[in-house]
Amino acid sequence: MVEDLAHTSTSLSFKNEESALEFKFKGNNCFSNGDNSNALRFYTQALRVAPRDVDVMGKNLVAILYVNRAAVLQKMCLFLESLRDCSRALSICTSYSKAWYRRGKANSSLGNYDDAVRDLNVSLCMEHSLSGKQHIEGELKLILGQNIREDFPPNVNKCKESSVTDQLQGIRLQCVKTEMKGRGMVSLTDIPQATLLHAEEPYAAIISKNCRESHCHFCFSELPADIVPCPSCSMALYCSQLCQIHSGGKDQQFHTKNHGTGFDLSGDLENYVASVIKEIEGVNIKKFAEHKHECGVNWPAALPAEIVLAGRVIVKFIEQNRHSGKTSTIVNLDLCHNYLQLDPESRLELHISSIVLLKCLHYFYGSDIPLNGNTISQCVMLLSQINVNSMAIVLVRSADLVGPPSSAGNHTASTVEQVRAGQAIYLAGSLYNHSCQPNIHTYFLSRTLYIRAIDFVAAGDPLELSYGPQVGQWSCDKRQLSLKEQYAFVCSCTGCSQLNFSDLVINSFRCLNQTCSGVVLDSSVTNYEQEKINPFPCRLPQQVPLELDDVKRVARFLGEETGSNRSIKPGFCLSCGNFCNLEASNAVVKKTEIWIGRLQSLLDSGECLATTLSNALRALDSLKSALHPYNKKVAEAEDYLAQAFCLIGDLQRSRDHCQASIKILEKLYGDDHIVIGNEMVKLASIQLSLGEEHAVEESRSRINSIFSRHYGSHVDAMFPHVRFLKRDI
Ligand SMILES: C[S@@+](CC[C@H](N)C(=O)[O-])C[C@H]1O[C@@H](n2cnc3c(N)ncnc32)[C@H](O)[C@@H]1O
């Protein structure tokens, strides 16, 4: 099996001329029938499998496919994409008249009239047929006519992309060793809120399996319509030629380039052609080509992402060593690992994975990666380092939920979505420890990791991020379990060791005494919360912060009683002591699940039926009768209803449910948490559709304050399409 995975001769990811021609034929048919989206799909498929050195009627097949796709993109008004495809064709075949012609059309549509005229003039010189020449001349006339019109379309190509201005501000951080957590980061100076602390490129990164067809395999951004496939295999896809070159394939050199045009061009045009080609080829590759050893074989698609990531680490380490004249193949990244905490089955799995990976790499690297006990045990260690140090590259994007059109236009609710696009190892980023109440925030722009202080951090305080679980997101027991399973430690952060409001209410039931706002907990929660009051000997003794007003309000007994006999009894209200039958409350909650679940799946499919909606509304009332008003299930139900009402165009009710959901989340996460910012984006977009200008202004100022705290000046780069974040709505 390993041989099948590793051998290029059995690879399914190879190029195939016959399939490429078949896809091209289908693309041509769709194009002539006006079916642009399928034509685009077929040409892209053809490009994925087209060998680089096949000629069709004297022209390179890949260049023809790029030009054909450029024609479809032009029809779809995707002019920039069309322009890029023409340039790609020209980098393969400089004297391709049709590619210059299409480039001219794309430039003209983008308002780049001077370039368009030059493109068409080059095309005219290179065109052999009389009818072709006449066609180009017609187009030139049209453009020259357009050139004197006053309503030029905007010059999109020349628009500068918003630049990222935030800089690291000379903050001095230090790595210290602690008894409980191993190494960790602290600051040597006071750090103001929102300060950017850290920016880092990954040592190695790999795309998530579920994003392989939708995101760039190098920078992880969403793939545009003009996808660039790897020139040597049909697996890897890129958003640009630049990313493809950085990532590298088996054979980096693209086609035999025909630099001299062989045509008698005027000096001006000759220079123009040279500048266009130079722009395409002028990529200075400094990065390690991380796809090279995986190109054209099956194993990267078949093995789990963390194994492929380990392969990239090993290969990079060896290449770097080789570059600096060292011969050692001992991969030493100086990261912690969880091997000793793994159970025997998981260890066995790591050993088997290591053997498979090394055998696959061995096919490419031969004796540089020998398959012996030494290298296997190193690989096992590397995998157990990846287990606890790799970070998910989570990209945020805004998506619109569009309701039916009305006289006031479309109803839209913008939601902020998170996409787990990749997994990576950041060597310095791996030195930050975890807290369920973090004081720093991590995010990614493309594959760059950024870390920013979200609170004021005093000199010497630990800088801790969240590995995933956070107070407000999950209850204490769930957080502990997840951290133990994934990172092999028992969390004793402030959130897990001190009473806090969120952990008390997040899964709580309401007190059946109607006048009481206290919480009732079941036994799964009481054990953990009890532990915070009377810590086990293995834990550090903690002071229970009784002064917390919110905690006192819902759990008066905990706040007022002193001494060691404060206890949390399951089923009894922590405020008035009333006994509540949790079996009955649980039965009520269970009954609602079906309706809330049905609403959720309808939302996923983008439709919403009136009957489901009214049943879900009744379910919300039942939930509220059994659960504490700040239970997270209530917030989720409110949110689903907000989305559903938006879909059917009832914006007032959509806004009310959205506000109700945010009110609960504020209690669980705190007012300034990023989750609140994301939810406020949804609320502001509904308010915008309702024309509530004053409310939008208030929401916008809150969003700006939360987003600046978490993303600083990177906000624009992260949310370029969220229009109400801009001042000029
Ligand atoms: C990404 S590493 C962090 C750096 C690590 N402390 C070191 O010495 O290299 C993750 C590991 O650090 C330890 N760790 C991180 N946060 C912790 C915490 N709050 N309490 C205890 N151990 C923690 C765990 O062993 C975890 O598997």
Q: Biggest sheet, strands in spatial order?
A: 3-4-14-11
**Beta-strand share of residues:** 5-15%
Largest sheet: 4 strands, mixed
Rg on CA atoms, Å = 30 Å
CATH class type of the domain at 2-150: Mainly Alpha
Q: What is the helical fraction, as a range of percent? A: 40-55%
- Bound compounds, please? S-adenosylmethionine
Architecture of the domain at 2-150 in CATH?
A: Alpha Horseshoe
Distance between the termini: 59 Å
Spans of 5+ residues with little confidence (pLDDT < 50)?
149-164, 537-545
Number of strands: 16
* CATH fold-level name of the domain at 2-150: Serine Threonine Protein Phosphatase 5, Tetratricopeptide repeat
**Total number of helical segments?**
27
Shape: globular
List the helices and strands and how they pair.
Layout: H1 2-6, H2 17-32, H3 36-49, E1 55-56, E2 59-60, H4 61-75, H5 79-92, H6 97-109, H7 113-126, H8 130-147, E3 173-178, E4 182-187, E5 196-200, E6 204-207, E7 228-229, E8 237-238, H9 241-247, H10 267-281, H11 299-302, H12 305-323, H13 344-365, H14 373-389, E9 391-402, E10 412-425, E11 433-434, E12 440-445, E13 448-453, E14 462-465, H15 476-487, H16 494-497, H17 501-505, E15 509-510, E16 519-520, H18 523-533, H19 549-554, H20 556-560, H21 582-604, H22 610-626, H23 632-647, H24 651-669, H25 674-690, H26 693-711, H27 715-718
Parallel strand pairs: 11-14
Antiparallel strand pairs: 1-2, 3-4, 4-14, 5-13, 6-10, 7-8, 9-10, 12-13, 15-16
Bound molecules: S-adenosylmethionine.
S-adenosylmethionine binds at residues 180-184, 336, 338, 388-389, 430-431, 433-435, 487-489, 491, 493.
